[in-house]
From TrEMBL:
Coiled-coil residue windows: none
Keywords, sorted A to Z: Iron
Source species, domain of life: Bacteria
InterPro entries: Fe-transptr_FeoA-like, FeoA, FeoA_core_dom, Transcriptional_repressor_C
Protein's recorded name: Iron transporter FeoA
Organism: Virgibacillus pantothenticus
Domain Ferrous iron transporter FeoA-like stretches: 5-77
One Gene Ontology molecular-function label: transition metal ion binding
Pfam families: FeoA
Length: 83
């Protein structure tokens, strides 16, 4: 079993199962509303040349997050297709 790590550590094309969201207050509520919830599977679709921001595919929507936010969302890599 792989350990959880911040989602900004993953590479383009990686599929990630979110394990926890450590953000607080309004930003936490926004990201939960957008689908960044524990158990959800997301995909890294793009990284900017300097690595910040990163774009994630969440339920067929592309959402860009800064390192500040993505460093507080933890997940583990999914190695097989989730149906």
């Amino acid at each position: 079993m792989t350990a959880s790590k911040p989602i900004y550590h993953f590479q383009v094309g990686d599929r990630i199962e979110i394990t926890s969201v450590e953000l607080q207050d309004v930003m936490r509520r926004r990201l939960l509303d957008l689908g960044f919830v524990p158990g959800a599977v997301i995909e890294v679709v793009q990284k900017s040349p300097l690595g910040d921001p990163l774009a994630f595919k969440v339920f067929n929507t592309t959402i860009a997050l800064r390192k500040e936010e993505s460093s507080l969302i933890y997940g583990k890599k999914v190695y097989k297709e989730v149906v």
